[in-house]
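Let us work through a complete example step by step.
Step 1: write down the sequence.
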Amino acid sequence: MVNDLMEDQKRLGTEPGSGKYLSLSGGGDNGAFGAGLLVGWSKKGDRPKFDLVTGVSTGALLAPFAYLGKDYDPVLTYVYTQTSPDQIYKMRWLLSVFTDDGIADTAPLFDLIGKYVDAEFMRKVAYEHQANGRWLLIGTTNIDAGIPVVWNMGKIANIGTPEALDLFRKIMLASASIPGAFPPVMFDVAVDGETYHEMHVDGGVSAQVFLYPTAAAKNADAAGVIRKKKRDAYIIRNSRLDNDKEDVERSTISVVKRSISQLIQAQGLGDIYQIYQTTQKDHVGFNLAFIGPDFKVGRKVEFDPEYMRALYQYAYDRALRGYPWAQNPPGLERTFDEDIKAKSLRATLH
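Step 2: predict the structure and record it as tokens.
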């Protein structure tokens, strides 16, 4: 990744202006929140052209369209307000949980991705990456190795072959492939003349949201890559920050389901705190959006169209009024530097 940054700098030169980053989290059908916010933001007229867009899970489905800007807002609107569960997955037979690699088949979702992500779409991504030095990163999880993988989608798009287009689509599908529910996506990898199969699943298994790999940023600084002077990060958390209260039945399935929900919730909060720490260290502005406690609509089933439409409209309306981005994660009212200054002031007064 550092070599790619250095290549961009050599090819495009350096620009001391501002940088805008967008991170889109996982959240399943709650991706309707991110879609509505982005489209409403476009309508308001002050949505930036982002230099970096990252996506995980449902965020990986949003990210390429967010990267190419408002021209693809109708796609976001359609996908997150008009699609039904049977356009996302097909349920397999009852015992597939014991005999298959997922209880549902995601062929419909792959077809939906293919409908919009075609050769022309990929050429546009390649152009933005090559001509303007903009980055699109999508995260998956290599479940065999147990490691997160970050894919440079602009570099893949620049290859321009039918195989690259298929890989582009498969990465989007893999990042949204919830383990157990959806089958993993297989990738062929050639090493030293031999071909191996890698199994990739939902990027949210490793991280619910990410800004940029911190190790890559550190190595880029060491290599002399010049950063933009003023940088701002916008993190869209396609979920609530609080966990709804729920009467859990005293049964194995109910307890396990609720526990997994709590685990994902805690992981998502941890990822946000990690991003915040990175932005503070690197002097990047922090802006966070999330589903507020004022959204009260419940869902009947996963990917319930009525629920998604209501959530989309909720986010759209808030963005149109000017979304009140949080400048700190929950529980942190001040930045680290502000806290140090406050303590110093109290010490001086006493």
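Step 3: interpret the result. The radius of gyration is 21 Å.
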